[in-house]
From TrEMBL:
Keywords: Hydrolase. It comes from Pseudomonas amygdali pv. mori str. 301020. The lineage of its organism: Bacteria, Pseudomonadati, Pseudomonadota, Gammaproteobacteria, Pseudomonadales. This is RNA pyrophosphohydrolase. SUPFAM superfamilies: Nudix. Its EC number is 3.6.1.-. GO terms for molecular function: hydrolase activity. InterPro entries: NUDIX_hydrolase-like_dom_sf.
């Protein structure tokens, strides 16, 4: 079968934060991985990603959504 895309492969993870969100720190190293970050709504990235990646983001978010909504 044909690959869905050519280029960089991505792995998506859905994690549940079980601590206070104020404890999340991205600036505790001399060379932080990210210049900036923020909490956003679940579907927000879909409108921000470059157009050619939008469909793959939509499918990933749609597949992960039921797990996010479950409370187990």
């Amino acid at each position: 079968s044909q690959p869905l895309c050519i280029g960089q492969k991505q792995k998506w993870f859905l994690l549940r934060l079980i601590s206070n969100e104020q404890r999340v720190r991205m600036d505790l190293t001399g060379k932080p991985e990210f210049d900036g970050w923020r909490w956003v709504s679940y579907w927000y990235p879909l409108g921000q990603v470059v157009t050619f990646k939008r469909e793959v983001y939509r499918r990933a978010l749609k597949e992960l959504a039921p797990r996010l909504l479950s409370r187990d």
